[in-house]
Amino acid sequence: MITYEILMLFRVMPKTELKTVIKRTAGAILEKGGIIRKLENLGTRDMPYKTSVHGINYKQASYFLYECNIPPSTIESLLDEYGRDVDVIRRQLYRKNQPTSNECTLDEELLPPPYRKDVQDLIEQARKHDKPKFKYNTGLDYYPFQK
Question: Which residues lie across from 64 on neighbouring strands?
């Protein structure tokens, strides 16, 4: 399964109510066959702009980040369920990128720039875009009869 991050903004409420909302939203992921890897509380803060959901205006929200594995076929129904929940102000799902490993050796980095492979590749790319020089067969590198 693919790893996703779900950012949830809940309305500001007491901890006991917030706890039940978190259990309900996490239970929806588990019911759809997902696995929750991490749940992170990002705190209660002001929203960047005023948002109106379910007929109520919100200026503050409690931010939570779920990291989970969900089957792609159930994402739409999960987001639809969260959209109908009155305690959820906003929800956004992101696909988590797998970290790429860049091979780097110290010997290559210590070389002077003209001898590095990546710099030589850049120079070669720049030379491809150079215009060819015209040969005038006069021994000069310019056209002498130009005004």
Answer: 8, 41
